[in-house]
Amino acid sequence: xxxxxxxxxxxxxxxxxxxxxxxxxxxxQENQSFVRFFLLVASNNEVLEFPNKDGNLLAATSYAKDNLxxxxxxxxxxxAKIDNPVTxxxxxxxxxxxxxxITPVNSLTFTNEKRIxxxxxxxxxxxxxxxxxxxxxxxxxxxxTDVIIGIPNENIPNNELNISFKETVFPFxxxxxxxxxxxxxxxxxxxxxxxxxxxxxxxxxSIPLFSAPSTFKYTIEKKPITKEDEVEFxxxxxxxxxxxxxxxxxxxxxxxxxxxxxxxxxxxINKPIKVDRDGAPVINFYNLNNPFYRLFGEYWRPDNDxxxxxxxxxxxxxxxxxxxxxxxxxxxxFSDNGTPNDESDDVYHHRYKLGFVGNFAPxxxxxxxxxxxxxxERNDSPGLTLPEAIEFFPxxxxxxxxxxxxxxxxxxxxxxxxxxxxxxxxxxxxxxxxLVDSSSNLWKITLEIYVDATSINGEIVxxxxxxYNNRNYPDTEPLTTNCPTVINL
Length: 489
Description:
- By secondary structure, this protein is mainly beta.
- It has 3 domains: 24-165, CalX-beta domain (Immunoglobulin-like); 171-271, Sandwich (Immunoglobulin-like); 281-488, no CATH class.
- It contains 2 helices and 34 strands.
- The chain has helices at 2-26, 201-204, and strands spanning 33-37, 40-41, 47-48, 62-65, 71-78, 86-95, 100-103, 107-110, 116-123, 134-142, 147-149, 160-165, 171-174, 178-180, 188-194, 210-211, 218-222, 230-237, 247-253, 260-261, 266-271, 295-302, 310-317, 319-324, 331-335, 347-356, 374-375, 386-394, 402-407, 410-415, 422-437, 442-453, 459-468, 487-488.
- Strands 22, 23, 24, 25, 26, 28, 29, 30, 31, 32 and 33 form an 11-stranded antiparallel beta sheet that branches. The chain has a 5-stranded mixed beta sheet with strand order 7-9-5-1-11, with no helix packed on it.
- It is elongated, with a radius of gyration of 29 Å.
- Mean pLDDT is 91; it is low at 1-29.
């Protein structure tokens, strides 16, 4: 007990010393009321908006603006009690900018309940760095003489804030790259075009952001713009599409002045052929009870020891179920989350589709051993995360032990680590799945994968790939086919 007591006293002493040092940075006199800028900026230059906090950050005295979104600058008051509203005046000095708004104009108000007020700066035109654009804000006067301007210290009073501007590009891209529809009249879904660094509304309100070919009857409605970094649309099917045919359409971003296309330039929309099938073969290839569960297998690659020869080499991938709505035709109830009388928290999975998704987003996994096909890619490339990767088709529609498995055709995006250049690569493929050992419930997937790498080296690459639902599987017989070499991005 004495040891515990001594440890507690030591912890308290350390905390006291730490707080004392931190207070020394901020103010030097006790029982003073003061007001100061309280702009917190993370290491990635992202501004933390109130009430978000980070105890490791000190209020900034300057900020380099790198986006078109509204800059929200908190101003905070420190006072034991505020009996009457306190008005704080501030001045603004702007150079090199011609189209902007700053609100409020020159004063802020604080009460006992409102200890934070905010200055909003919106730049309505892209800046010209040759004019050296700058904004300087200065807290100048308090209506209450007991509330002083700035933190009472000689180091960083935070009564001034200087805003400069950085050279910035303004990308835009789709939030999803693929959507499967059922093809029912009036069926709809929402999608977005994202502008992570913001946009000037007048520049994009009246122009198309993408092209939309008419392969079947549909409409696309743009919703009212309510955010500074995205535009939302609704895609609606206007006819019943034939069940015995597969139909596709692809939305493609167009060139927009002052903006650049980002990493995801296409949205592929697919209505597949309706196939009658039973069962849920997908359940043999994932295990949510084990977050580290993987599928293990091999891919056919050049032999490192024997030039001109090929070999099987081990690989693995994290499988994940495809979540669907309750009324989805190919869905099944995976879990009621222990509330059988409450359907609101029920979880439904797709019977036939499987995704390949890593456990630590945005870091991906290694679908189809794609990472081993390239050199110089980023681990967080979108193409290494496939929410829908493969789809199972039981033999004769109802086999419980074998069938066809298809790669879900889509465009994946691989980002080069050296300069963040994105490559869009269509992938496809097919193969079989089968139960190879019923006593151990060992299942095998055999696939031929096609990766269209023509945007990189002009080639369409074929990859042989196998997976098992257990790391204990039989040896793989060598192939007599060629194997793709590693592509240096």
